Input
Amino acid sequence: MEKKLPKIEINEKYCKGCHICVEFCPTRVLEMRGFTAAVKNLEACIACMQCELRCPDFAVTVTG
Amino acid sequence: MGFDYDKYIRPGKLPHIWCPGCGHGIVMKGLIRAIDALELDKNKTAIVSGIGCASRLPGYMDFCTLHTTHGRAVAFATGIKMARPEMNVICVGGDGDGVAIGGNHFIHACRRNIDMTYLIMNNNIYGMTGGQFSPTTPYGAKASTTPYGNPDPPFDIAKLAIGAGATFVARGTAFHAAQIDKLLAEAMRHKGFSVVEILDSCPTTYGRRNRFKSVVEMMNQLKDMAVPVTAADKMPAEQLRGKVLTGILYKESKPEYVEEYRKLVERVRAEG
Amino acid sequence: MSNRVAFLQGNEACAHGAIYAGCRFFAGYPITPSTEVAEVMAKELPRVGGAFMQMEDEIAAMAAVIGASLTGTKVLTATSGPGFSLKQENIGYACITEVPCVIVNVMRGGPSTGMPTGPSQSDVMQARWGTHGDHPAICLVPASVQELFTETVRAFNLAEKYRTPVTVMPDEIVGHMRERIVFPEPGELEVIDRTGPTVGPDEYKPYDTRFGDVPPLASFGSGYRFHVTGLNKAEDGFPTTRAEIVQAEEERQLRKIENAVDDIVTFEEYLLDDAEVAVVAFGSIARSARYAVNQARKAGIRAGLFRIITYWPFPERQIRALSERVRAVITPEMNLGMTVHEVRRCVEGRAPVSGIFRVDGEPIGPGAIFAAIREVR
Output
């Protein structure tokens, strides 16, 4: 059965590129792309919510 | 699954003014989750701040908000609470605002035990003015006004609050994001003056001067420094050196100021 | 039913006037010679269901009254010289945020600790320019115990009507003298309450100039959520640095008072119709001046008194008109020359203006003023 993946939205207007979400993701789902964070490997996401919780800029939302 | 912060934020006010990596946004999210957990009525909740980076927080929040003068938030808030006791009153601000210029108001609010919560975002520096040392800047640290290292010993805000008579004192960090709302919710549930200090990061004016390579390194320092108060009892003194205790550090039940004053009013009016 | 009559101290009358006006919150800090205002408020406020707070310092007291006022409560603080200095930053905050409040400053000698128990009239410029930046000012200077009561009521009315701090400044003599006072019955004096919003919370803006130069102020806790900041702000209350908005808002804040001078400015003219010498005085010194004018009249000198009751806005038009018909103006005041400059500004050289200045802790008696009248005649 196919694993149901969460959806990670990054609001590029809010993201200030601090790296916090990228560095504290336990499964390395995110990366920096230019000045903002981006989803690199959604397959690895375990929906731990750390990226949303730690984002100081209200830029990361995990749903689904 | 995700938390809907927009419910509590004024439309069109984000992005906020804080620098990349500043922990204030993390703390603000914790405050929103705590308010949500307690289902506080927006119309009956005042958020009051002084001056500084952290004091910009109320402007984003969809409540009755008051951005006052430097250091005076608690004094303004005291007037609100006394005149309208049914309101929930939350004060927010930074370390310089709270315990330097506002230190007198802080200790006296602790002493009075007036029912409000004071959230202090302690990033050990005056950020908005460009990085001057504050009363919580560590001894020896660099700031724009301590180019040779800080000669001043710092305050321990939590100990100051306990010593001054606050009846609820807690400490968390911006790294321990999931704990922030729990501490704040407990503080707001408490009847009396509650203080929540959140150790925070200022990569722009503190981190760069003090050889932190990135905010991630600052966050990791917060992680390494913190020892839950519940674990500290079992740890030998040498292991606690250089650490800070986190969690609910102090809690007691004492007569609350507004209630006591109301009783006084009833007594006076009954006597005629 | 006849009105209650009492023998009261000025400061006590001031506190009773505040209660009459509907003041229900006081925050203060002990300081001579104003402390009796706080003492009476501490006793009276609980009786009417209000709240009294002695704060940790003068700054906190000013802050607390502004906070309380934002909940829709009428508020008072009282202080003297050094305390008035300490309050100035937050008075400026009340000016820019347009939060009604009344500040009593019982004037003592200065600068610094000066002569705490001595009378003075040397804070009149501080009442106008004490806080930094451009801002409006209303300042009332009563001369008797009765008038300290009625002017305190009027201070609350003006604060609420114009959304601004108002200072009541008796000199120490007026604050501490004891006189007969007739208590007005409820309803006898006009009491003005704050104008609340006429639009719903969704449409409400705290500085909405569609409603004129004094926009309605909603109360915290009443269902209206809004932001209040000491930063320059737009009509929605949020900070702005947009040049045209900042300029317009600051100009409106001055204009709301300037355009209302006829409603605000009060004074008393005594024997001025045919006067060739005018004495311009206020507070306790106006009482000496009245006596001196009477002495002069007996001596055949046509002297008269212009008594300032509203010091700010200064009664410019009236003094200008006066200067067109008198030969000389004298300003006795308990400072080293403050009112004299304002009077000269209004007189614009049409008549010589001389002053009698005293800061030694003694009042200026009628003899000195009578001598000056004779000299300039």
Remarks:
- Residues 21-230+238-271 of chain B form a domain with the Rossmann fold fold (CATH 3.40.50.970).
- Chain B touches chain C through 38 residues (CB under 8 Å).
- Chain B has one domain: 21-230+238-271.
